[in-house]
Specification:
Layout (H helix, E strand, L loop, with lengths): L1 H14 L7 E4 L2 E4 L5 H9 L4 H10 L5 E5 L8 H6 L4 E5 L3 H13 L6 E4 L2 E2 L4 E7 L20 E8 L1 H7 L5 E6 L5 H6 L2 H7 L2 E5 L2 H6 L6 H8 L2 E5 L4 E3 L2 H7 L5 E6 H4 L1
Parallel strand pairs: 3-4, 3-9, 4-5, 6-8, 9-10
Antiparallel strand pairs: 1-2, 7-8, 10-13, 11-12, 11-13
Helix pairs in contact: 1-2
């Protein structure tokens, strides 16, 4: 009961109250967000946004390493890492103009701005430009290269596209310990653009693998297993870190979760 009251007060105070609405405190940082943002609402409901995934991410980040947050939205999977790992650099990618301006404002005004780089580009298999479907600002979590029908993403724009390898090389090939990828179905394309750093650093990779999103890209579900086998990774279902060895078990796990971890088999030996 008290938790629901606190949740409702937080949502009203930072979502609607004049003088407070439009930003909220999160891990000691003032986070800006679009009006009625679904991510803000989820943060209010959950207390800590995607806490189980966050705990896994944080445990995998190494000292003096870099963490790439691909599909960062308003930064709720970037800020805690910066707060918990004071020698870590975070690079957040957010292509949606409806969301980027809030993320960038948060980054620039935060105490982490010297260790936090925000890039206003989409991430894919190769650099260039691509069409990008955007919803209203409050539903920006569903923006992507394809209209997955999970939100009303009927506005189409063109956005610049980079790759993880390009940005990693531009930064001087820092030690990359973790990559988080949440790009509404383009996860495999993102992985294809990260092969150099994957083979060099064997970063842990936490990604979304959602059947509805994958269908919009004509991406076979089993491609995750195939990618893992080719590049010496093991797939784990989250949050319980259950090994997934074949497409049959992957399909079963996808009934209950859309979060999976790729962990280098080389690290496990």
């Amino acid at each position: 009961m008290m938790m629901n009251i606190r949740k409702n007060i937080k949502q009203w105070l930072y979502g609607k109250c004049p003088g407070f609405a439009g930003s909220f405190p999160y891990y000691g940082t003032k986070v800006y967000f679009p009006k009625n943002s679904i991510i803000f609402r989820l943060a209010c409901e959950q207390g800590i946004y995607e806490q189980e995934n966050l705990n896994i991410l944080s445990s995998l980040v190494k000292p003096n390493s870099t963490y790439f947050d691909v599909g960062a939205n308003i930064g709720l999977m970037s800020i805690p890492i910066l707060q918990q790992h004071n020698s870590c650099m975070v690079v957040s990618f957010e292509p949606s103009p409806n969301t980027y301006k809030f993320l960038n404002r948060t980054s620039e005004s935060s105490q982490f701005n010297k260790r936090w780089k925000v890039i206003s580009k989409a991430v894919g298999s190769q650099a260039g430009t691509l069409d990008f479907f955007i919803a209203s600002p409050d539903m920006g979590a569903f923006d992507g290269f394809k209209d997955t029908k999970r939100a009303n993403t009927n506005n189409q724009i063109e956005v610049p596209v980079t790759t993880i390898d390009i940005e990693w090389e531009t930064l001087g090939k820092p030690k990359l310990s973790v990559i988080k990828i949440d790009v509404e179905g383009a996860e495999l394309e993102t992985l294809k653009g990260a092969l150099n750093c994957i083979q060099n650093d064997q970063p842990s990779i936490l990604l979304e693998w959602n059947a509805t999103n994958l269908q919009a890209y004509n991406c076979p579900v089993e491609s995750l297993i195939m990618f893992a086998e080719k590049y010496n990774y093991q797939v784990y279902s989250l949050p319980n870190l259950i090994p997934v060895f074949n497409v049959e078990s992957l399909l079963l796990h996808m009934i209950n979760t859309e979060s999976f971890l790729l962990f280098s088999s080389k690290k496990a030996t």
